[in-house]
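Recall from the previous chapter that SMILES is a line notation for molecules. Here it describes manganese (II) ion.
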Amino acid sequence: MNFQKRQLIDLQAYLDYLDKANHLLRVKTEVDAVYELAGIAKKFEGEKAILFENVKDSDYPVFIGLYWNRDVIADFFETSSEQLPFVLKDEIRTWHKSPMEPLISKTGPANEVIEKKVDLNKLPMPHHAEGDGGRYLTSTVVIAKDPDTGVRNLSIHRMMLVGRDRMTIQLEEYGHLMDYYKRAEARGEALEITMSNGVDFAVSMAAAAPASAAPIDTDELGIASQIRGAPVELIEAQTVAVEAIANAQFVIEGHILPQVREDEGPYAEVTGYYAERAPRWVFVATAVTRRANPVFHSILSGMEVYNAFATITEAGIFEKVNALVPAVTAVKLSQGSIPYHLVIQIDKKFEGIQYNAIMAGFTSQAFIKMVTVVDTDVDIFNLADVEWAVATRCRFDKDLLIDKDSAGHRLNPTSEDDLWTRVGIDATVPLPIEEKYVRAKMQDVALDKYDIEGL
Ligand SMILES: Cc1cc2nc3c(=O)[nH]c(=O)nc-3n(C[C@H](O)[C@H](O)[C@H](O)COP(=O)(O)O)c2cc1C
Ligand SMILES: [Mn+2]
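With both inputs in hand, we obtain:
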């Protein structure tokens, strides 16, 4: 295993690497972090990452696009887009067997400068979508400690800036941070956290790891150490008893208040719709530390969140569905439907097995609303190919499976009282295969043998 790229643990070194690999755009013109920055970023979503070098009223550049190109992430992990989820799953498996402890010191790059007076307005948090309720911190890795056991948890949360030292934070009901918070709140205590902005892939991936991959009694930081191939370095915080990532660009320290809720949102979510404004949890910052020359990291919700999520969950979905239906050869969460549509490829030897695959797919993750099953001659990484199979192989009066009123995903606008309707699409060829269903095929040639000008 070559760990060279994985050891690019400073954002500055990673940006150099992206530059050399021709994966980075630099915006030199001054841009406003309110609307304009995200407006430009949206035009390049999924392509090269972007460094906004000159942000209005800010001393710091803003980087966006860390995860929005799956091929770039795969290249970083020295694998293919198809294999990436399995590489990460293998690392998580190894971590379970032999977890590495982090190294903790008092000082590190992320506290080179200690801001005497907390003023979160100085951070160039973008105001993304036109209907958002304010400026948002979106990429920042929260570290907290279990109030009973002290085990560390990593997670990422959207946070809206509401005051010089105050942000509202969204906590999903079944997340570990919520679990920690509820137990602290029950004792009337605040939950101390640190937030590290501008961290490497290893730490980001560990933070995105779902509870199913990293149970509550395990220190998720170990996943980051495993991916890096070396123990993650932490720094002690100035004002709370929770550590932060030593190589981060900025660290915000503080606590989530017990018994206090204030309005958060609306926020343009990964679904492409606004999450509603509602009373949510409140974070108060007690210190900000940073590098001497930091780069602020932001995430544009959409393809970035999808990629963070899909790369860490697809391998688990495959293992579950394949365990129930061994005919399943591959799975893919489709990018177009962020993240509701699961495409399953099967080696169909007899009729009916495609419906078993659909039902296994429905329950493989809480957010699956649509499952399309295709044969092995369809490229599930190519949505156009999947659509071709649906359009030419699905007989819609016979081949759809409708599942009404199952528990849905709240952010999906079709959910009513948290219930939705799921659909399974059988886009496999009916057996026995009739001549008319045989796919036209050209010779499979290896292009490197040819001298072709203009490639
Ligand atoms: C960019 C991004 C934004 C996210 N925003 C939130 C959020 O606002 N609230 C939340 O509870 N989870 C959010 N998540 C998901 C959690 O970070 C993720 O489910 C994590 O695995 C939770 O870990 P935990 O259960 O160990 O706390 C986000 C994930 C990403 C990648
Ligand atoms: Mn966790």
